[in-house]
Write a structure and sequence with these properties.
The chain is built from twelve helices and two strands, in the order αααββααααααααα. It is mainly α. It has a two-stranded antiparallel sheet. α1 runs antiparallel to α2, α10 (263-296) packs parallel to α12 and α11 runs antiparallel to α12 (342-360).
Length: 367
């Protein structure tokens, strides 16, 4: 008799908690600014709510599709080709915030680089599964992976979007490590990346300024160090219990775009150390259940896919939180499920749906 498939309710619940909490915090972080700029306190909430509804429906649909269906090359390669077309076509759109990152569809915007994250995860899982016995083969494994990743990263980097480019590299590295790539290749890749990072950071003025603002924010509190100092003020003023929901002050035109990359600072100010720690705990639960799904999965493709999606979700969260509390320079990495951003929320929920389906097929009981 076939085993009845059941999703991981703990993982499902953790994701829903973050989405609902995210809607609350988007409203809290943006209400005053939205009223001032757009004439409605609900401007950002309504848009995020639409994406959240679409994302949850997509997550439920995807979690009922056998994850092994994504291994089909007739899906993977056309999807990659479409992705590259979108990443080129986005340059034809008007500049918005000095970048070419979004397609504008009426009241909604779509960012193709968010699609890139999940497609790269699926491609890596597929290709590394096919090359499971020759992961360290430079010509037949690492070179094709490097070409696909390199083309994707270069297109995104030109938007410009260094944060998403680095996030994709982090995800790819984690999947290669899980697949058994020898450590000497990581050392070589790191050595090769250092001069490239030097060029893209120190030869681009605003990135250089961000790095200086991270290292010495107090030297230019109204310029390069403004974002970092305002974020740290928000985090520090929250104390243990916080000022209370809607009672934060840094979001009132001090903290730039508080509903997006710095929403964790608003959480820290309004919910205090306890609230900020609880958000971290929920992401730790997602890490636990994601790795559990990977370990319990019976096939190599599913294991790698679960690892990639888990790193995609939790890795971005850790980077975002680290930026907010001053451990990393400012990067355009949203807090998954919580930050304002429709395409990010939609793609993360679709990725979560794939992970939930992998959990249905898990065999055995591990922690």
């Amino acid at each position: 008799m076939a085993r009845k498939l059941e999703s991981d309710l703990i993982l499902f619940g953790a994701i829903l908690v973050l989405v609902i909490f995210g809607l609350v915090m988007v409203f809290s972080a943006s209400a005053v600014m939205a009223s001032e700029r757009y004439g409605s306190s609900y401007y950002f909430l309504l848009r995020q709510g639409i994406w959240a509804a679409l994302g949850i429906l997509a997550m439920v649909a995807v979690m009922n599709i056998d994850y092994r269906q994504w291994r089909n090359p007739r899906f993977i390669f056309p999807a990659l080709a479409l992705l590259w077309i979108l990443l080129v076509a986005v340059y034809l759109t008007p500049r918005w915030h000095e970048t070419h990152r979004w397609f504008h569809m009426g009241p909604l915007n779509f960012q193709p680089s968010e699609l890139a994250k999940i497609l790269i995860v699926i491609f890596f899982a597929y290709f590394l599964d096919r090359r499971r016995n020759s992961v360290n083969d430079i010509r037949h494994t690492l070179l094709p992976l490097g070409l696909v990743t390199g083309l994707t990263v270069v297109l995104i980097l030109k938007e410009p979007d260094l944060g998403t480019s680095l996030a994709i590299c982090l995800i790819c590295a984690a999947m290669l490590f899980a697949a058994g790539l020898h450590l000497r290749y990581f050392a070589g890749a790191t050595a090769a990346a250092v001069p490239l990072l030097y060029v893209v950071i120190f030869h681009v003025a605003y990135r250089h300024n961000r790095l200086l603002g991270f290292l010495h924010p107090e030297s230019d509190p109204l310029g390069k160090g403004f974002q970092m100092l305002q974020s740290l003020i928000a985090v520090g003023s929250g104390g243990i219990l916080g000022a209370g929901l809607m009672e934060g002050h840094q979001k009132l035109f001090f903290l730039p775009e508080p509903q997006t990359d710095f929403i964790y600072a608003v959480i820290s100010e309004e919910w205090g150390f306890i609230g900020a720690a609880l958000v971290l705990v929920v992401f730790a639960v997602i890490l636990w259940r994601g790795l559990r799904a990977a370990i319990c999965c019976s096939d190599h493709f599913g294991k790698l896919l679960a690892v990639g999606i888990t790193v995609l979700l939790v890795g971005q969260a850790l980077v975002n939180m680290s930026v907010v509390i001053g451990l990393l320079p400012t990067k355009g990495i949203p807090l998954p499920f919580i930050s304002y951003g429709g395409s990010s929320l939609l793609m993360n929920l679709i990725a979560a749906g794939v992970l939930l389906n992998i959990s249905q097929h898990a065999t055995g009981v591990v922690f």
